[in-house]
Amino acid sequence: MRVFGRARAGLMRLDDALDALGADGVMDDRVGDVPLTQVVGTVDRAGDFDEEFRLVSAHLQQRWRSLADAMSTGLEPPPVELIQLGELYFVADGHHRVSVARELGRLVIAARIRRICTIAYGMACLRAADLASKRAELEFLRRVPLPQPVRTQLWLDSPAEWLRLADSAQSWALERTLAGCAPADREALAAGWWAEEVAPVLERLRAAGHGLDLRDVQLYATALALRDQRGTASWPTDLAELWPAPRRPRPFRAALPSRTG
């Protein structure tokens, strides 16, 4: 049933994810079914399984096979114990049960779950390779603490993009301060910047048909980078000026016959 081969990337560690997302308190404990695709990490056994929860430690193979045989005949083991960060789950107890359940093609697993709130949101698509960008997002949110509904939709691929956004937000706050409308605190700065600066730009770009496949923050970050390339600190009246015109395909030309003699 099972082929034990060379490991790929290991499981994401809970400590690494918490370091990138920023712990913000324990919310609750519950029991429920969890989608196995969202069980992506471990508390303390990153070296025993790969990122797909395939066993890579030879000394654990017998235990894995025994559990697989039992679950194949209908035995239901106790719920696993998971830590939840956003849409991600990390195994505290029950790594073999998760591994076997995935191998058997199951979609969910029964679990006892402890949910920990985080400053940056852990989307289901987050993997270890994305943690550097999430750390930059965390630093951005500490400077610009956006409202929670906005945070759940944040995703940028490059840490440098978060620095650009932080500078943009603080430049906006400085302009408001010079105009006699200083934000009361960081929360007011963040909410005002998003509502008065970001949202209107997004509305204009969406209406013009730009960035329909991008999240709001991705679209704004893209437009901001294009504006910076123009060397200006203000938005053009027509935002379409920022967007490169689509390339037109070259007309097809049939090859001319070679001339001889």
Automatic annotation (TrEMBL):
InterPro entries named among the record's database cross-references: ParB/Sulfiredoxin_sf
User: What protein does this entry describe?
Assistant: ParB-like nuclease family protein
Give the species this sequence originates from.
Answer: Actinocatenispora sera
